[in-house]
Amino acid sequence: MTCLISLSVLLLLLQYPLSSLSANSEGNALHALRSKLSDPNNVLQSWDPTLVDSCTWFHVSCDFNNHIVRLDLGNANISGTLAPELGQLHHLQYLELYGNNIGGKIPEELGNLKNLISMDLYDNKFEGKIPNSFANLNSLKFLRLNNNKLTGSIPRELTHLKNLKIFDVSNNDLCGTIPVDGNFGSFPAESFENNQLNGPELKGLVPYDFGC
Ligand SMILES: *[C@@H]1O[C@H](CO)[C@@H](O)[C@H](O)[C@H]1NC(C)=O
């Protein structure tokens, strides 16, 4: 009996630092995110760095193990750029940042968010390329990047995303041809409109980055 109790105490002691460590690295990621954003409407006011548990902050949702699974900051009038540390939120399922004034490049580190189901970055001021690393987001169902200032071609690797249901890159400045492989065969033309894209690629005839 004593042995059993001391074993469970030992297990508790072993577990505690591990879970608090991961919670801290997620909290640190949010601090990094916060530090690069400007927030005139004070929607991030509750993001108090002196509170250890970022699960109590507004617009942040956690699972039962205190891992951050949602960031809901749509239509919040925030500007600035995205910190690469966002890629450390390994349990994140929903990244909702649509309808803001966020600019700069989309960090390639977002390709580390293996549990991500939905990434909504539409209606912002993002520039630069769609990261190739997004091809690692195997859980992704919704990827909306429309109404930004993105350039370059659509990474061909994205055609490997088996779960992707909605893909929208309309109203950007993308070039090259529109992929036809994988789920891209089923995305409507509206998902690609208002770019410098050339219509569905005729494989073997024209390189996919033709016109870039
Ligand atoms: C958004 O923020 C700007 C300041 O950057 C402010 O002038 C404007 O009124 C805000 N818009 C809304 C809808 O709150």
Automatic annotation (TrEMBL):
<dbReference type="Pfam" id="PF23598">
    <property type="entry name" value="LRR_14"/>
</dbReference>
<dbReference type="Pfam" id="PF08263">
    <property type="entry name" value="LRRNT_2"/>
</dbReference>
<dbReference type="InterPro" id="IPR055414">
    <property type="entry name" value="LRR_R13L4/SHOC2-like"/>
</dbReference>
<protein>
    <submittedName>
        <fullName>Uncharacterized protein</fullName>
    </submittedName>
</protein>
<dbReference type="InterPro" id="IPR032675">
    <property type="entry name" value="LRR_dom_sf"/>
</dbReference>
<feature type="domain" description="Disease resistance R13L4/SHOC-2-like LRR">
    <location>
        <begin position="72"/>
        <end position="171"/>
    </location>
</feature>
<keyword id="KW-0677">Repeat</keyword>
<feature type="signal peptide">
    <location>
        <begin position="1"/>
        <end position="22"/>
    </location>
</feature>
<dbReference type="InterPro" id="IPR013210">
    <property type="entry name" value="LRR_N_plant-typ"/>
</dbReference>
<keyword id="KW-0732">Signal</keyword>
<feature type="domain" description="Leucine-rich repeat-containing N-terminal plant-type">
    <location>
        <begin position="24"/>
        <end position="63"/>
    </location>
</feature>
<keyword id="KW-0433">Leucine-rich repeat</keyword>
